[in-house]
Amino acid sequence: MTLTNFLYLLFNFISLFYQINGFSMKLFPIDSPHLQILPKHFTAKDRQQLLANISLSRAYYAQKRNPTLAPESIKSNLSHVQLNYLVTQLSFGEQASPLTPYVIIDTFTDLTWIQCADCDPCFPLKDKFEVETIPNFARMSKDDTRCVPLTSFNGSCGFEATYQNGHTEGYLGKLPFIFPNAKDLPEYYPNIAFGCGVHNKDITFNPNPNQDNQIAGVMGFRPGPKSFINQLEQTIKNRFSFCIPTAHGNDTIITFGDDAQISGDDERKVQTISFKPNNRYHVYLAAIVVDGARLHIDPNVFKLDDVNYKTGFFIDPSSPATVLSESAYSLLRGALVGYFKKYGWDPIEKPSTFDLCYSNDIQGGQAYPSMAFNFIKSPGDVGEIQLVLNPENLFANIGSEPGFCLQMLPSNGPSIFGAFQQANHRFLFDVKTGLLSFVPERC
Q: Name one GO cellular component term (predicted).
């Protein structure tokens, strides 16, 4: 018996003894001190600008359109850097010496891939991942049910993906992956499909050109044949849960399987709505309420366009800030400007970061407005489920200067409910049933 087979049997025995029902992974915001990805000279404004750009690019690239025609505002600020808000670390290969690349989380794709050592051309990367030298590695056949869409690469199952101005293509392989369970013991999962990007043109995951890039690729969180959510269905039962802290840069955990739980109490009620998992976690938004007043937003802007994705409302922790269609954002902005006008405040003209900023601070007797997003419980249901946002989910300081900015942005694409607005709420996704539960929680 080989060492690999012995370890596999041992870990399965331990799993049965402890009745382990899932596993967890760490999530790191792109500005996490753990990662140290952002340049050291980044100011608070620089950081806000980068997070705003990531949010806008998420809304733009959610649509089916030519990515080379991206607005100049995104091109000039992000260039060919591909960044999302959340990063995790994979572990695969041999238990004794696994490969552990960092990857960004992407809820718009089911594809997980990294740059492999046999790449040409390559993007700058701190580590080389020689995947083909790992025992039990095998390239995936085009006959494999996970080879969807059917793409060929040198006779094997292939893939390709476009990001911003860049492009990657390569082959799909199969390897054993390792995930820590609730007891923090390593769980061994053989035969997991993932991609090796070998032709990587104009792609980088590093906004700091003076630092070695440690992000090697992408982990797809959209359900689909290649997604870990589908491949590990028997173990995790298509369930995962997370809670994002309010403070920027704080790490958190995403939990899968039966260990992904949610609970509330008399004051913190767990609420549940429907979502469409195969359409990038689309949810049914009915209204936005500001200071108790319902905004008269055209409901069609939140209706799913499942052909070109130019409209719809998506839950996306990969986006830092919420992005609303221009017509919806205009009404929201107008309501907030009217609210702060009672204090004699006027917004900053042409702010350099988010769209709506003030140079004032809340003083005694003043307060931020209340805001809530009202969701339809399920299609055809007349009842609404309300997610109430606290000021910490809505506004952030400009930096060392007095004032604050609304952590939302307008876009000519679909609407996205981002990580800032999800913060300090626990979310539980049950992909099989298409149900999303949430409850306030200090993360």
A: extracellular region
